[in-house]
Amino acid sequence: MARLWSPEKVIVTLPELGNTIAASIPAALHRARVAEGERLLLVGTGAGTLYGGLIYQH
Questions:
Q1: Which residues form the Beta-ketoacyl-[acyl-carrier-protein] synthase III C-terminal domain (predicted)?
Q2: Three-state SS string across 1-58, please?
Q3: Within a 13 Å sphere around the CA of 33, how many CA atoms are in the beta-carbon half?
Q4: pLDDT-derived band at 36, boundaries 50, 70, 90
Q5: How far is the CA of 44 from the CAs of 5, 12, 13, 36, 56, in angstroms?
């Protein structure tokens, strides 16, 4: 995702927090500054090759 969008629009938690798997989305939301009405694309990974995503409007 970071290669597709500008760096200021992507929050990456891996370098500071390590591999947090299920906690990566809550950790990113804690760091994000989300404006009212803004849409977010949340993408996370799990064990193996599992991944998921959703679009959320604040």
A1: 6-57
A2: CCCCCCHHHCCCCHHHHCCCHHHHHHHHHHHCCCCCCCEEEEEEECCCCCEEEEEEEC
A3: 2
A4: very high
A5: 16, 11, 11, 23, 14
Contact 24, 52 (CB under 8 A): no
pLDDT mean across residues, the chain = 83
Domain positions in the chain: 7-57
Q: Check pLDDT > 80 for residue 22.
A: no
Give me 57's structure tokens.
């409007």
